[in-house]
């Protein structure tokens, strides 16, 4: 086996998910040759940007041994509030500034989660479940519950920016928007954080065993706090991109997506008990969920069966490794 | 003996606080809007409103007592309602004699309960025999159940029931709403199961310490199967109430009830890590939530603010509860989970 391939290549979730994706693409291309074109790929890419950024954040929380269900509320809160703020004080505000404001909003809300989890030691699921309602309730009650389609012009400019565009020979239009760079940025930053910094290794250590991490001298509280702030910031980024690309600040959007995002992350092999998760797996999981949501019809499964398919994929993707682990544990006695 | 006495003192605390909260909320609302909140009309309408999600919270309670969670409750409720609804519209005929119609209603109810039990069996199998974490097993199976409901109905609502379906959700017996009777019965059953049976004791032991339960020779797989079957059957009862009250069945009814059910269970003092949960706490939590939302409704506070207040309430109660717990834990061993 090549040195750069992981030894457990064949038993990893990533391999399973990649296999399912390849199989799906093969079947889809066989049943409709138009499936495997640059147009489809760019459509799917565009659909996965927001979910992808959210998933990177959700993965980090799972690695740290927690679970966050409030990030969609953070995303929509940050997006809507920064849009309202921009419209109120400086409608001509350049988009990077709007983005920064949204990210700061996200980080701030993440810090609230982090405070309850890291410093008061409350269970992560319960805290984020509570803050999910709080953020959403606060947004809709005090900031606004109207859709805003008259966005600051800079946000519309952002959504028009493309890295590449063109028309295929068959006459189909495709484009890769700037926002793809944001996903790339989020992935690269998180990769650097997890692989190259002490902080990243501490996150893995905490997820693996909180008590051991504490005993080797990791500052567990601040590391946990950082995780939630970082996730909040990523959610703020995802939110503002969602708003810009959709050309509408809709306070009712995104919330409800949190379990699908977590499902994507878990499909990619991140473990709920913490300490394990990869970016490759996360992105593959996102790709699979997005493909199933958008292209199920191509392989002849009616869209009404979409939820059944995603549910079965989750059960299969988590069941196979879980069953294997159970068997291994039973053999070990 | 002194240990059990001190245990009692500790465990009495969260429920007592909940009682104080429930009474306080009731009193506050009664003061703020005296003629409408305490009116019999409002009390009756509250009694019709809360049982559907309260029963889902009971299902969540038993799953949480084992340290698990059941995210499929709403999916199970809707799937059973859809199955019952499909049976009912097949036979709906205004000319049918009342006895025959009642018989068909019984068949539909039985089918819904069977679906609930079957769904619970699926969840239990996934958790017990395949070793899936309950949160993922029920997240996935919940999507599958909802998906089946969508596939069976094509995503639209099923309606046109015989008139006797309204009995489940809208009738009263001696002035007491039927949904409230159903809720009270199920709460009592769950309370008796958890406190008066060997099975209930095993559930609590397993939730508190799975390894100890294993060494105590408890058949964990059977236990988990039973727990999720109970949760499934409870969910299908909630589904039937929703169906009757909405006079239709649809795959995406009550989607906000999932988080609400978790919230109520936790608010009711059920430990999400397992090992502790009392039905009386859940009942008090449900009442507080319902008083709060009806009261706020009368004060013309928007639904969104209600969501905000629920979230704040959940976090505040958690802060109060866990601080008490940490002080206690510090006295014994500082073992944090």
User: Rg of chain B from C-alpha positions?
Assistant: 21 Å
Structural class from helices and strands of chain B? mainly alpha
Tell me the radius of gyration of chain A. Answer: 20 Å
Low-confidence stretches of chain B: 331-337
Q: What is the general shape of chain B? A: globular
- Average pLDDT score of chain A: 84
Low-confidence stretches of chain A: none
**If you average the pLDDT of chain B, what whole number results?**
82
CATH architecture tag of chain B: Orthogonal Bundle
Helical residues, percent of chain B: over 70%
What is the CATH class name of chain A?
Mainly Alpha
What's the short version?
Helix content of chain A is 70%, strand content 3%. Chain A has helices at 13-31, 38-63, 71-89, 95-119, 124-143, 153-160, 179-196, 198-208, 210-215, 220-246, 258-267, 279-295, 306-332, and strands spanning 162-167, 173-177. Chain B is mainly alpha-helical and 337 residues long.
Report on the architecture of this protein.
The complex is a heterodimer of chains A (333) and B (337). Chain A contains 13 helices and two strands. By secondary structure, chain A is mainly α. Chain A has a single domain (9-145, 157-325), classed as Orthogonal Bundle (ABC transporter involved in vitamin B12 uptake, BtuC). In chain A, strands 1-2 form a two-stranded antiparallel ribbon. Chain A is globular, with a radius of gyration of 20 Å. The model of chain A has no long low-confidence stretch (mean pLDDT 84). With 337 residues, chain B is mainly alpha-helical. Chain B has one domain: Orthogonal Bundle (ABC transporter involved in vitamin B12 uptake, BtuC). Chain B is built from 15 helices and four strands. Chain B has helices at 2-32, 34-37, 40-49, 51-65, 73-91, 98-128, 134-153, 166-170, 178-196, 198-208, 210-215, 220-246, 257-267, 279-298, 303-332, and strands at 158-159, 172-173, 176-177, 248-249. The longest helix of chain B has 31 residues, at 2-32. The radius of gyration of chain B is 21 Å and the shape is globular. The model of chain B is unreliable at 331-337 (pLDDT under 50). The chains are: A mainly alpha (333), B mainly alpha (337). Chains A and B meet through helix 5, helix 11 and helix 13 of A and helix 7, helix 13 and helix 15 of B.
């Amino acid at each position: 086996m090549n040195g750069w391939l992981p030894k457990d290549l064949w038993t990893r979730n990533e391999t399973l998910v990649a296999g399912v994706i390849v199989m799906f693409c093969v079947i889809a291309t066989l049943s409709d040759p138009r499936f495997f074109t640059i147009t489809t790929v760019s459509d799917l890419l565009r659909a996965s940007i927001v979910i992808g950024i959210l998933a990177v954040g959700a993965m980090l929380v799972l690695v740290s041994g927690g679970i966050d269900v409030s990030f969609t509320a953070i995303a929509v809160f940050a997006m809507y509030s920064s849009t309202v703020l921009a419209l109120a004080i400086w409608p001509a505000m350049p988009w990077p500034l709007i983005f920064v404001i949204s990210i700061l909003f996200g980080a701030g809300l993440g810090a609230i989660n982090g405070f309850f989890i890291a410093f008061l030691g409350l269970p992560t699921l319960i805290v984020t479940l509570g803050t999910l309602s709080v953020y959403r309730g606060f947004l809709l009650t005090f900031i606004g519950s109207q859709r805003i389609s008259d966005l600051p012009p800079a946000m519309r400019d952002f959504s028009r920016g493309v890295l590449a565009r063109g028309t295929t020979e068959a006459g189909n239009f495709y484009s890769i928007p700037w926002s793809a760079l944001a996903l790339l940025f989020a992935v690269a930053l998180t990769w650097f954080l997890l692989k190259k910094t002490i902080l990243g290794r501490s996150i893995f250590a905490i997820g693996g065993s909180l008590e051991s991490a504490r005993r080797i001298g990791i500052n567990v509280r601040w590391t946990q706090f950082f995780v939630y702030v970082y996730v909040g910031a990523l959610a703020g980024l995802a939110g503002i991109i969602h708003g810009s690309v959709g050309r509408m600040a809709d306070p009712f959007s995104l919330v409800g997506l949190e379990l699908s995002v977590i499902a994507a992350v878990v499909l990619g092999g991140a473990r709920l008990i913490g300490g394990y998760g990869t970016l490759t797996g996360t992105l593959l999981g996102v790709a699979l969920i997005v493909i199933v949501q958008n292209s199920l019809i191509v392989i002849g499964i009616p869209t009404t069966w979409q939820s059944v398919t995603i549910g079965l994929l989750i059960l299969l993707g988590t069941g196979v490794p879980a069953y294997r682990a159970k068997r291994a544990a039973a053999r070990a006695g | 003996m002194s240990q059990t006495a001190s245990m009692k003192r500790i465990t009495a605390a969260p429920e007592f606080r909940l009682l104080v909260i429930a009474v306080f909320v009731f009193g506050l609302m009664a003061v703020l809007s005296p003629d409408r909140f305490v009116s019999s009309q409002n009390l009756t309408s509250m009694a019709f409103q809360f049982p559907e999600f309260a029963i889902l919270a009971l299902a969540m309670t038993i799953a949480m007592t084992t340290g698990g969670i059941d995210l499929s409750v709403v999916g199970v409720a809707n799937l059973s309602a859809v199955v019952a609804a499909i049976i009912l519209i097949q036979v709906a005929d205004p000319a049918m004699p009342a006895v025959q119609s009642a018989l068909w209603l019984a068949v539909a109810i039985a089918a819904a309960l069977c679906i609930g039990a079957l769904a619970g069996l699926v969840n239990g199998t996934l958790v017990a025999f395949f070793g899936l974490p309950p949160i993922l097993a029920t997240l996935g199976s919940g999507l599958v159940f909802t998906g089946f409901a969508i596939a069976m109905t094509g995503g639209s609502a099923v309606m046109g029931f015989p008139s006797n379906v309204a009995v489940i959700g809208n009738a009263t017996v001696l002035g007491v709403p039927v949904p409230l009777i159903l809720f009270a019965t199920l709460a009592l059953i769950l309370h008796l199961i958890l406190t008066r049976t060997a099975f209930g004791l095993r559930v609590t032991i397993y939730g508190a310490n799975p390894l100890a339960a294993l060494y105590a020779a408890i058949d964990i797989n059977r236990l988990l199967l039973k727990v999720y079957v109970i949760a499934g059957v409870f969910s299908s009862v909630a589904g039937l109430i929703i169906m009757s009250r909405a006079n239709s069945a649809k795959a995406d009814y009550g989607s906000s009830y999932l988080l609400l059910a978790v919230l109520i269970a936790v608010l009711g003092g059920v430990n999400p890590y397992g090992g502790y949960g009392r039905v009386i706490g859940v009942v008090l939590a449900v009442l507080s939530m319902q008083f709060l939302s009806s009261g706020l409704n009368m004060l013309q506070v928007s639904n969104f603010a209600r969501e905000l207040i629920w979230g704040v309430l959940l976090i505040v109660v958690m802060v109060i509860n866990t601080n008490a717990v940490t002080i206690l834990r510090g006295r014994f061993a500082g073992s944090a989970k």
